[in-house]
Write a structure and sequence with these properties.
27 helices; about 30% helix; 7 domains; Neutral Protease, domain 2; eight-stranded mixed beta sheet; PDZ_sf; Peptidase_M4/M1_CTD_sf; seven-stranded mixed beta sheet; zinc ion binding; single chain; Peptidase_M1_dom
Length: about 1000
């Protein structure tokens, strides 16, 4: 038993030994290349000489990088071959391949430098393989140099020179090497070795950096998972860099003393040891690490200070300032920062991507998903797809749309918030109707909206995936305002009030430089050169802000008219930007200086000051940094709102017709009794028809059972009077036929289909009085599916019911009135969709009362629910305050007197045997012809009169000089009386029939 225990002990020791020695482990089971390097560096000669051995696994392509190196000897599997050029691709082999390479190189320029001052090797400095490999590195160099490379353990063999052995058992990309006359400070923390490599001048910073390393590692271990390595070091660089590598970061000498580097940049670089240098970036599929690390480091620090929203706003300002259409590209194509535009995409939009993912999933699911991604991909290449898989696995959800929209598209969504109505309810409660809109391309978004009243604030998430989404919010107290995304939780285009005139907007766009004289130009030459590199043109002439649509930079002086926009300059150099009052999408800037030297002292700082609206400096020291002001979120006033129009920009009816001409449905909302509105409708119909649009005309005033009458009239099979009888126009509608006649006649002349849209009057009357529940099964079968979700529409109709529609008191119950309105809307919507589905080549112009289409409440939203979302709304002569949500366009036609309509001048009552004349008005055709009270009209022009609609149909076709033969019963006898002409007009005609 004792011998067995000793044998087991020996096996465990051997197993651990194999695991801890990469070379042995790789020899037994080579899964990725193994590279062994022994090299000597001679700084006085800028020289490296060495030997590299590379073992490649079977069945894999391996690419070898020899660029920048002088290859002395090259062996493959013991056979010496002629040294290859810069690159060599080894085809897959059934067995491992063994390469031996003797090489040398002289390095004097970045990314590789060997000098007596310092050694910085971050490029291809020895024979390396593309992709991940295991590396075992031994470096010999003069004693005064302290060296560092990625390592969990550093073994140093001292002698006349020092030899460093960097032990690192994990896969990595080609490792860097840095060496210099460093002072080294080292601490043990948990099981880690923490170190700082500093030159003498910055040695006093060591403890502060060690403390920050401990704090940061501790924080991210609790947030993500264990730190992946056994060491971490901060290494000073003679060049001003901020690089992250496995187990260390390389930071420039001038940067190290700056407090923000230690507090902000260092956590960013340390975090890369989890993401980027722990989980490696699959460069062929885009760089996700910078966005993620920016979010978890820089943004997280801002959040701790309570400035998370401000930080996200700055990211959006930078994106909008630097990313022009020609510089834009999808986030998944970001590889690395090459300019401010690529930084705004990869770092900024990338960080916002992860913030939105966190908002979508919630904190716990987001950080659990990150942990899973880290665990499953540590020491491997990972892509955006791997991130998606980890979060989908953790949350058991499908994130394809989210990742696709944000990674594959350029640009950002453009949103707006529009007030529809504020409707008073009971008990100091209000209904606020809002609309969130977005421009194409549409994103699937959850948009945060806050509604603030005198008594409370309500937060809502508006779900939107198309052009708009409606919100109905009930709130206590008088509503004051609503704000969309005031905390900048969405990556989106900032509106004008949110987009301040900061220096980033000056540096990120092209424009003109205006200088009053050559003498002044000489003084500003460094600044002019700086701006010209960013696309600015030195103008030979004076330019006013109202003359161009680009930025303008004024040197030394500004036009008198605009001087009050700029405060008095302070300091030796002054640069301030303001919004161009003539063109608010652009900015104008004023630069003033006392000397060229002052510009030179501050010029290198300008690019980093983009967040400010302006700066002042003295002797190169920034004395003033002007923070911009901006509106937080997209705000609409609910208490009192005023909007206006630029009258010189009013559109013609032709331009509006053209703008809507491709829409599948064009709603023309009318007041039924306004002739000028019907003439305007006709003008739009004419334009569409004459420009080849295949239109049909949908009509509210005709009911579905009477479609055949419309078809027969358009086809010319019946005349006008018969059409009015068969369609029962006057029985079911009643408005002056002559108001619509020009439209119907034009349709008949041009064979434009007319479509009866409305529900039968019998059904809507019954519903209005008794409700849908009172309908018979046969009647219910004629009623489409009804949507009752729009609370704003319901409350608007309640207001109509209580103040206007039910003044007669015939309908006692609002609920039944509301149901009748919904039956109208749903039936007309269904009629529109039915027709267009049967005639997919057609468009439809819908003539309907404004109340059915304003705000898209009635018919349009129900057409959209049935799948037709491509529509436009034009309102004619709206009488309420204009609101962007009301419609797409409004028309204000000049008032036009209604066309002549023949009237007898009598008040009648329908009786079983005819029309009883209750009153004859004075000075009317009836009075002049001798009609009397008590007469019963039984015929008109020899046609039987059964109801008032029959009489109206006959009178509808009469002209002012025409007559009508009226047959009456008077004291039991039939009498014919010729009535006319109908020229008489007086006030009593408004009541006469």
């Amino acid at each position: 038993m004792k011998n067995l225990f000793k044998k087991l002990q020996m096996l465990v020791v051997l197993f651990l030994f194999v695991l801890l020695v990469p070379g042995l482990c790789q020899a037994k089971s080579l899964l990725i290349p193994f590279v062994s390097l022994e090299a000597s560096l001679k700084p006085e000669k800028n020289l490296i000489e060495g030997k590299a051995e590379i073992k490649t696994p079977p069945g894999q392509d391996v690419s070898l990088n020899l660029s920048g190196l002088k290859v002395k000897k090259f062996y493959i599997n013991g056979k010496r071959i002629s040294p290859p050029q810069k690159y060599i691709n080894l085809s897959p082999s059934n067995s491992p391949q063994h390469l031996k390479i003797e090489f040398s190189a002289r390095f004097t320029n970045l990314p590789n430098i060997i000098s007596e001052r310092a050694i910085v090797l971050t490029g291809n400095w020895f024979p390396s393989v593309e992709g991940l490999a295991h590396y075992d590195i031994k470096i010999t160099l003069p004693k005064k140099f302290v060296a560092i490379a990625p390592s969990d353990e550093i073994k140093i063999k001292s002698g006349r020179k020092n030899t460093y052995h960097f032990v690192f058992k994990h896969p990595q990309e080609r490792p860097p090497l840095v060496a210099g006359p460093y002072f080294t400070y080292q601490e043990k923390y948990k099981k880690l070795t923490l170190a700082v490599y500093l030159f003498e001048k910055n040695a006093n910073l060591a403890q502060a950096y060690l403390n920050q390393i401990k704090k940061t590692i501790n924080e991210y271990e609790s947030l993500i998972g264990p730190y992946p390595y056994r060491r971490f070091a901060v290494v000073e660089n003679i060049f001003q860099t901020g690089y992250a590598f496995p187990t260390f970061t390389l930071i420039g000498s001038r940067l190290l003393p700056l407090p923000f580097i230690r507090e902000t940049s260092l956590p960013h670089e340390i975090l890369h040891n989890w993401f980027g240098c722990g989980v490696y970036v699959d460069w062929s599929k885009g760089n996700w690490s910078e966005g993620l690390v920016t979010y978890l480091a820089d943004h997280r620090l801002a959040e701790k200070k309570g400035e998370g929203a401000l930080y996200r706003h700055r990211l959006l300002v930078n994106y909008q300032s630097y990313v022009t259409p020609e510089r834009d590209f999808p986030l998944k194509m970001f590889i690395g920062r090459k300019d401010r535009a690529s930084q705004a995409i990869g770092y900024g939009k990338g960080a916002l991507f992860f913030h939105m993912l966190r908002q979508k999933l919630g904190d716990k699911a987001f950080f659990d998903g990150l942990k899973l991604f880290y665990q499953e991909n540590l020491f491997k290449y990972a892509s955006w797809e791997d991130i998606k898989k980890a979060f989908e696995k953790e949350t058991n959800s499908n994130l394809h749309t989210f990742f696709s929209e944000w990674l594959e598209r350029t640009g950002l969504p453009k949103l707006n918030l529009v007030k529809e109505r504020v409707i008073p309810l009971k008990n100091d409660e209000y209904l606020v109707a809002l609309r969130v809109t977005q421009e194409k391309p549409y994103y699937q978004l959850s948009v945060p909206v806050e509604v603030i009243s005198e008594k409370e604030t309500k937060s809502i998430q508006a779900k939107i995936s198309g052009p708009q989404a409606r919100l109905d919010v009930k709130i206590k107290g008088k509503p004051l305002k609503a704000v969309l995304d005031q905390n900048y939780d969405l990556a989106r285009i900032l509106t004008e009030p949110e987009f301040p005139p900061v220096l980033a907007r000056l540096f990120g766009r092209k424009g003109f430089i205006v200088v009053p004289s050559q003498i002044i130009l000489d003084r500003y030459k460094p600044l002019v050169s700086f701006l010209e590199k960013r696309g600015y043109i030195l103008s030979p002439n004076f330019i006013s802000p109202d003359e161009v649509t680009e930025n303008i930079v004024y040197l030394d002086t500004i036009p008198e008219k605009y001087k009050n926009l700029f405060p008095q300059a302070e300091g030796n150099f002054y640069l301030l930007t303001v919004e161009n009052p003539e063109n608010p999408s652009q900015i104008i800037a004023l630069a003033q200086t006392t000397s060229t030297q002052e510009i030179q002292r501050v010029l290198h700082k300008l690019e980093h000051l983009g967040r400010y609206q302006g700066i002042c400096s003295n002797n190169g020291v920034l004395t003033t940094k002007i923070e911009p002001t901006f509106e937080k979120g997209i705000k609409v006033n609910l208490d009192f709102d005023v909007k206006g129009l630029a009258l010189k920009e009013l559109n013609s009816i032709e331009s509006i017709a053209r703008a809507v001409s491709l829409k599948k449905v064009i709603f023309l909302g009318e007041r039924h009794d306004r002739y000028e509105q019907h003439l305007a409708q006709l003008e739009i119909i004419k334009w569409l028809h004459e420009h080849g649009r295949p239109i049909a005309i949908g009509l509210e005033m005709f009911q579905r059972p009477f479609q055949q009458a419309l078809d027969d009239y358009i086809a010319g099979r019946i005349g006008e009077d018969e059409f009015l009888r068969q369609s029962e126009y006057f029985k079911r509608w009643g408005y002056n036929w002559k108001l619509y006649k020009p439209i119907i006649d034009y349709a008949r002349e041009n064979k434009i289909p007319l479509v009866a849209l409305n529900a039968p009057k019998e059904i809507t009357d019954k519903v209005a009085k008794e409700g849908i529940g009172a309908l018979s099964p046969e009647e219910k079968a004629q009623v489409p599916e009804i949507d009752r979700q729009n609370l704003a529409y319901q409350e608007f109709l309640r207001f109509v019911f209580e103040h206007h529609e039910n003044s007669s008191g015939k309908i006692k119950n609002f609920e039944t009135f509301y149901e009748a309105q919904l039956v109208w809307d749903e039936t007309m919507a269904q009629s529109i969709v039915n027709y267009l589905e049967k005639h997919p080549d057609k468009q439809m112009v819908v003539l309907v009362g404004s109340g059915h289409v304003v705000y898209g409440y009635g018919i349009p939203s129900r057409v959209a629910r049935r799948g037709i979302k491509d529509y436009a709304i034009i309102l004619l002569g709206p009488e309420e305050a204009l609101n962007p949500a009301m419609a797409d366009y409004v028309l204000f036609p000049e008032p036009k007197e209604a066309p002549f309509a023949a009237k007898l001048g009598v008040l009648i009552e329908e009786k079983p045997n005819g029309l009883l004349i209750k009153k004859v008005f004075p000075d009317t055709p009836a009075k002049k012809a001798g009609l009397k009270e008590g007469d019963v009209i039984i015929k008109a022009d020899k046609q039987d009169i059964n109801d008032l609609a029959d009489l109206k149909a006959i009178l509808a076709v009469k002209k002012p000089d025409d007559h009508v033969l009226i047959t009456i019963l008077r004291k039991g006898k039939a009498i014919n009386i010729k009535v006319g002409p109908f020229k008489t007009k007086n006030k009593s005609e408004k009541l006469a029939k």
